[in-house]
């Protein structure tokens, strides 16, 4: 099973160890880490060569969850593709909904009403909170700290309750529409959300206390999975990983969309570019997300939530059933889809793991000619081999956990 | 020594070898049943305790023909852990992978469990119980080199784990087995140093004698428990003991998210259950050792052979049988509390990495143990020596 051709491992082993290996003629042990392995939540295969516990060579193979999302998008009308985006990063679906719909809106040239933008912002930040909780919880669990994970899962339940209250679903949200959202925010949402946000923060802080000052956890996270700032930029890494490396790039600040430009929030930046800083950045982002949501609830304007544009928003049911023109209008929209002008757009949002961009090419028909998704997980996964080679076998786990690779998004 | 002479006279007082044999057999059966029973109880603590810590409900489904529910009894998951889990485990397919060494694969779990179980033979569960003319020492096997015996049997335990990893023909299992052997051998040294310091303090290798030495009080009220004499040894033994039992934060040989399941990756059904039992039995064993060395073994505070003598001067005479029962209960309650402490730690801490584990063992615990031993020796000599 060992590859006899490969003589030159990426990390040279020198000195006494090299001399001993020379004499013992021991080839490294090759290990197949995945695709079905407890730490590869999702499916990814990492081939490792081990010299004792040290990884001397590694190869990362993604694509086990490929479903043809991009190709599938070409066969559906613009509005029909929204549910597919739920399945990209399934731990923060509203972010994907928003990213896709905003790209399509850019293509149509539609600006949704202010209230819609505020509600979308709330949805996005709730998703980010849920995603960070899951990421930190799962990584802690993989380091055998099971208890913080369950605290975080309980907190995530509260966040999902709020998502449920917004759109009626917890995971497959299908919340955002082109030019609007599926339903207006419930009247009592602020009263519903505030105690849950407080309770979620309480649970989050419990987990924080169990992990951040824990010497064992710090030993495992500090200094592992290091990647230099230049490497981060060269590999196109974004999101908390990039910010942990000291680069304050956040789409919400650099290219403000929705209502982020009007809100007051900070972008946490790390300095060591290791797993612990990635963890700290996520901790702080969770708190900032909560701050954003509270501000949105405070400033929530009244008014409609759907753009008044007949190309994308369907007429109301009452009018469809009673009036000829609206019936035809609705029939055409359902069977042919709204038709944007020909052209191409790229729009990016800051998803939980980094820049989530949609590049859409339109030929003027109701279906995208091409829909390309720039998934943060995919770019963030690409330097994994570089990050784990030379480290210990056990370091593969937190490094992989802090990339927070989501199969649905990475493999699409 | 006065105590030694006393024991000798006890041994000399037997009449009739048969009765002695029967008593010995009963003691052996009692300890084995207790250990196996408590192992299951540990499993229950583990499941319900972790549920309590993690704000969950935990096991509460299994029932016998719905009887408990019909009678309106609350379900605490006892049937789950005591009946349903073992039945499930032992009726599962016993899978042996292709290319594995069938003999060693089958032998390994028992080789792991056996040394742990036999170590309990020297657990002093109480002082002397008088029934008629017989004076029964409540230590199943009264070895005067018991501390050495403990170290020896624990040392054998590593074979089962290493063989299990080797015989499975699986690289994860092999890695787990190698990690386990390195870890257990390294931490045995720290454990040995902790035990030697205690041995130097009490001047005996006999666990029963150590328990007796921890009777009585200091300053008229403070029980003379070993933890007050050897706090550093206590910490060393607790840490190295947890490393021996291969549980979080020292569960690298299993290392679920790294090594799939480590040395028992290729084990299923009954054999895996035996490996699990070994882990829990080791938790108990560590608790027994800590109880004996540092928490007075079977000593109940202010209880003497003739009853209680409270610090204020009040006394409450009790018959020998009651005293023996109290001692027996005290011993096992201490063991259970210390086991629960280990479970609490298990559900609080993350796992160490291999090199960090070795660093902690060789650069942390071993030097600390040596220092402690030297300091103890100086103090003992300065205090008049033995």
Q: Give the topology string of chain B: H per helix, E per strand.
A: HHHHHEEHHHEEHHHHEEEHH
Kindly provide the radius of gyration of chain A, computed on alpha-carbon positions and rounded to a whole number of angstroms.
23 Å
Oligomer: heterodimer
Helix content of chain B: 55-70%
Instruction: Give the terminus-to-terminus CA distance of chain B.
Output: 10 Å
How many structural domains in the coordinates of chain A?
Answer: 2
Biggest interface, chains and residues, is: A-B, 31 and 27 residues
The CATH superfamily of the largest domain in chain A is: Cytochrome-c3 Hydrogenase, chain B
Strand content of chain B: 5-15%
Structure summary:
The complex is a heterodimer of chains A (412) and B (386). Chain A is mainly α.
Could you characterize what this model shows?
The complex is a heterodimer of chains A (412) and B (386). With 412 residues, chain A is mainly alpha-helical. Chain A folds into 2 domains: 15-61, no CATH class; 69-309 and 338-410, Orthogonal Bundle (Cytochrome-c3 Hydrogenase, chain B). Helices cover 49% and strands 12% of the residues of chain A. In chain A, the strands form 3 sheets. In chain A, strands 1-2-3 form a 3-stranded antiparallel beta sheet. In chain A, β6 (343-351) and β7 form a beta hairpin. The radius of gyration of chain A is 23 Å and the shape is globular. Residues 1-10 of chain A have low confidence and may be disordered. Chain B is mostly helical. Chain B has one domain (94-382). Chain B has 14 helices and 7 strands. Chain B has a 3-stranded antiparallel beta sheet, with no helix packed on it. Chain B has a two-stranded antiparallel ribbon with strand order 1-2. In chain B, strands 3-4 form a two-stranded antiparallel ribbon. In chain B, α2 (17-53) packs across α4 (78-91) and α6 (146-167) packs antiparallel against α7. The radius of gyration of chain B is 22 Å and the shape is globular. The model of chain B has no long low-confidence stretch (mean pLDDT 83).
